[in-house]
Specification:
Layout lengths: L5 H16 L6 H8 L6 H4 L3 H15 L12 H14 L9 H8 L5 H27 L9 H22 L3 H14 L2
Helix pairs in contact: 1-2, 1-4, 4-7, 5-7, 6-7, 7-8, 8-9
Length: about 190
């Protein structure tokens, strides 16, 4: 099997370290060490750590399987549940959180390009959830009194809070509460 390109190795190492340590604590040397490439090669592929962060946010967004939220062959509430179950399954040690939320808390006040990437990624997530909610309303599965956009924003915010609490507690209890309130009350 052929080795991935040096750029891919750096990018994947960046994604991993940004999730593990955060943007500021992941030094370029740490990223290149993890990738197994010389530090000097970093700048052949990325202008700066901020440029890597922007691409890493895109890659992270791809990993979240957001397209599954748009799969209209799956009933809307079921696909929203599957989406959050997938995200919960991506937290085996309650130690990484979400790159959108992590960067949102850590770096958006200091980097306009990264703030815009986080905003776009989060906006896409909210929009896909809102569309699923609106479809659920049209099909009579979700009560019509909910505003789809507000509900989607609430769900992403509640999820990010559940991630923080799960990381703090090193427990899935916050996820259990999120699922109970979301699917037994809000989207019931």
């Amino acid at each position: 099997m052929a080795r991935r390109s040096m750029r891919e190795e750096i990018l994947e190492s960046g994604v991993e370290l940004f999730l593990e340590r955060g943007f500021n604590a992941a030094a370029v040397k740490d990223i290149t060490d993890r990738a197994g490439v010389p530090k000097g090669s970093f700048y052949n592929h990325f202008e700066s750590k901020e440029a890597l962060g922007a691409v890493a946010l895109e890659r992270y967004g791809e990993r979240l399987r957001m397209a599954d939220l748009a799969d209209r062959t799956v009933p809307p509430v079921e696909r929203v549940r599957r989406h959050f179950e997938f995200l919960r399954g991506d937290q085996p040690k309650f130690s990484q959180g979400c790159m959108f939320g992590n960067f949102g808390a850590e770096i958006v006040d200091h980097s306009e390009p990264l703030r815009l990437r986080v905003k776009d990624g989060w906006g896409n997530w909210v929009q896909l959830l809102a569309e699923a909610i609106a479809q659920g309303q049209a099909e009579g599965q979700i009560r019509a009194s909910l505003d789809p956009q507000q509900t989607a924003r609430y769900l992403t915010s509640a999820w990010e809070g559940a991630l923080l609490q799960a990381r703090t507690d090193k427990s899935g209890e916050a996820f259990e509460a999120f699922f109970a309130v979301t699917f037994d009350a809000l989207l019931a």
